[in-house]
Structure formats: structure tokens, C-alpha cells
Design goal:
The protein starts with a helix and ends with a helix. Helix content is 81%, strand content 0%. Helix 3 crosses helix 8. The chain has one domain. The chain is globular, with a radius of gyration of 17 Å. The protein is mainly alpha-helical.
Length: 246
């Protein structure tokens, strides 16, 4: 069934806003999309709609720079954990939670991520600790991704704690989120939760997301990044509380 004009306009605005956040902060597109779309759509459909804009923008971020092969060799346990958590345990968890449980899981994931990020910079992980925690962080990310569509937690805090340079961190986030998007698509397709109409709707959001991302990148130097980040996380946490408690 085709979306109403009002719902279509709302979703296109959500795609654009999510792209803008990603352009400013380097992350947040699927998180913002999942939060905003879940306010108007069933969570499983919201997950389906974020797939293509998330894949395209994260792949572009992963390919920007010359360290992709080096980062892939270092971070493959994280990616393997994301795939395993999403494809193996994810469908069972999603079936168990159901639509209402998925909305609660999404809200809890948003609150956890916002609280963790607002809590200040995480202590840096040693190389040995980073290797030990890569697979568990990936599995936990995959589980939350399958249940809620959010794959920023705990993968983003984990990557931020590795002490990567700014360019490497941006590329690593893009790489991890690309893997998570593909795994989520596989999980939804395996559970018959990926309709052709939703994929077409998702494809329609790619250009607005890219436009918002370009605008955010252009305005990044004119904004106070710390203030923008705090306001973004507070809004994200508030949205999560609404979804979890509604």
C-alpha cells in the first residue's frame, strides 16, 4: 500500500534531517531515522525504510580515505560479531519481542546510547582489551540491531574507545555501520519483513539523505559541534523515552 502524502512528506523530512545530522557529526543517520520513523510506522517497517539511505551514506563514509583495508583487517572480529548477532540470534529475538517489544527495545537502545555518549569520553582501551572486546561488542550490536534497527550501540562507543584518529574513526564507523546495514537487510529478508514497496520507499529516501548530509558537512564548521552533539543526544534520549514508555 502506498503511503499517504502526509506520511511520505514526513518520511522525506526524516531522511533529510538524518542526513544532516550525519553530515555534522559523522554518524547518526540510521539512529535518527529509526527514532523518527518509528513514531509514525511499525518498527519493522521503519527498519526496512532506513536500509538503503543508511547503506549508501555509510558506504560512502567507509570508502572516504585510504585506510579501509587496514581498518577491515583490524576490525573484522567486530564485523563478524555484528553479522552473527543479527542473523543468528536476531530473528529469534525479533520474533519473541513482537511489534510492541521492538518499540520498547528501540527506545531503550536510544536511551542507552544517549546516556553513554552524554556521560563523557570513555576511557581508552588497550590494544589487547580492544581485541578481546571486539567480538562481544559486535554480537551485542547485532542483537540490538535485529530487535530495534539501532546499530550504533555499543559499536560506536567501542570504536571511539580504541583511540583512533579522527579520519580513521569516521571511516571505521562507516565500515561497521555498512556491515550492520547489510546484516539487518539479511535478517529482515529472512523473516519476510522486507517488502518490495518498502524498498522502493527506502530508495526514495537516498537523495534527501545525501542532500541533508552534504548540507550538514557544509555547515559543520559554522556550528558549535559540542553544543550540536549535546542537543542531538538529548533529543535522541527524549525520543527513546517516549518510545519505551508510550
Amino acid at each position: 500500500m502506498s503511503p499517504s502524502p502526509e506520511l511520505l512528506l514526513y518520511s522525506l523530512a526524516a531522511f533529510t534531517l538524518a542526513g544532516f545530522v550525519k553530515g555534522v557529526l559523522g554518524l547518526g543517520l540510521p539512529t535518527v531515522l529509526a527514532a523518527l520513523l518509528a513514531l509514525a510506522l511499525p518498527p519493522a517497517q521503519a527498519m526496512a525504510l532506513l536500509l538503503l539511505p543508511s547503506f549508501v551514506t555509510n558506504l560512502a563514509q567507509a570508502l572516504a580515505g585510504g585506510g579501509l583495508a587496514r581498518l577491515a583487517r583490524r576490525l573484522w572480529p567486530l564485523g563478524a560479531g555484528i553479522v552473527a548477532g543479527t542473523l543468528l540470534a536476531g530473528p529469534l529475538l525479533a520474533a519473541w519481542t513482537g511489534s510492541g517489544g521492538t518499540r520498547i527495545a528501540l527506545g531503550v537502545a536510544l536511551v542507552l546510547y544517549a546516556a553513554t555518549a552524554l556521560g563523557g569520553r570513555l576511557p581508552a582501551l588497550s590494544p589487547a582489551a580492544g581485541r578481546r572486546l571486539a567480538l562481544p561488542a559486535g554480537v551485542a550490536t547485532g542483537l540490538l540491531s535485529a530487535a530495534s534497527g539501532i546499530f550504533v550501540f555499543p559499536s560506536a562507543p567501542y570504536l571511539q574507545a580504541l583511540g583512533l584518529g579522527r579520519a580513521d574513526l569516521a571511516q571505521a564507523l562507516g565500515l561497521a555501520f555498512t556491515v550492520a546495514t547489510v546484516a539487518l537487510a539479511g535478517s529482515l529478508a529472512g523473516g519476510a519483513g522486507l517488502a518490495a514497496a518498502d524498498l522502493a520507499w527506502s530508495a526514495a529516501g537516498v537523495l534527501p539523505a545525501l542532500a541533508g548530509m552534504a548540507l550538514g558537512a557544509r555547515l559543520r564548521d559554522r556550528l558549535d559541534p559540542d553544543l550540536f552533539r549535546r542537543l542531538f543526544l538529548l533529543a535522541l534520549g527524549a525520543t527513546g523515552l517516549h518510545l519505551a514508555l508510550a
